[in-house]
Amino acid sequence: MKHVLKMMALSFVHLGLVLYLLSFFITSKGLFSAFFMDHISIYAGLLFFGLLFEPISFALSILLHLFSRKHELQADRYAVETTENSEHVISALKKLSVKSLSNLTPHPFYVFLNYSHPPLLNRVRAIQNLPSGTH
After folding, report:
1. Distance CA 131, CA 135 (A)
2. What are the contacts of 16-20 at 24+ separation with CB within 8 A?
3. What is the mean pLDDT of residues 36-41?
4. Which pLDDT band holds residue 105 (cuts at 50, 70, 90)?
5. Which of 17, 36, 105, 118 could form a disulfide with 122 if both were Cys (CB 3.0 to 4.6 A apart)?
6. How many domains, the chain?
7. Which residues contact 107 (CB under 8 A, 6 or more apart)?
8. Is the pLDDT of residue 60 over 90?
9. What percent of the chain shows pLDDT beyond 70?
């Protein structure tokens, strides 16, 4: 439950940052003058926000993906402890992987940048490496 609250708090901070930056992009006279605009336009502000916020969003998404992957591994561990059968959890993960046509061997850097869940092989290895009392 503590992890869920941390993720919710992080999501609220993220949303607050996005809304603050949006208000800045919509009302900043300096930004509009940098683009040679005489008056503030909400439409142009939204366009600037869309263009200039993307690098910030990408950097924040990397951080959020790190937390998400960590929590997915913790959820796998919890599933093994609850079911007391690691093979059933691994089997379920494999079935989900087949249905979603997931890549079994994605490049680690691509995983770092884009994946919110660990790849299947990493999850299976983590489950197999759990102490013997948990499975």
Report:
1. 7
2. 17/60, 18/53, 18/57
3. 89
4. very high
5. 118
6. 1
7. none
8. no
9. 96
Provide the mean pLDDT of the chain: 90
The SS3 call for residue 52 is helix
Q: Pull the structure tokens for residue 89.
A: 């959890």
3-state SS, one letter per residue, for the chain: CHHHHHHHHHHHHHHHHHHHHHHHHHHCHHHHHHCCCCCCCHHHHHHHHHHHHHHHHHHHHHHHHHHHHHHHHHHHHHHHHHHCCHHHHHHHHHHHHHHCCCCCCCCHHHHHHHCCCCCHHHHHHHHHCCCHHHC
Tokens representing 116 are 């919110």
Range of the domain at 84: 2-134
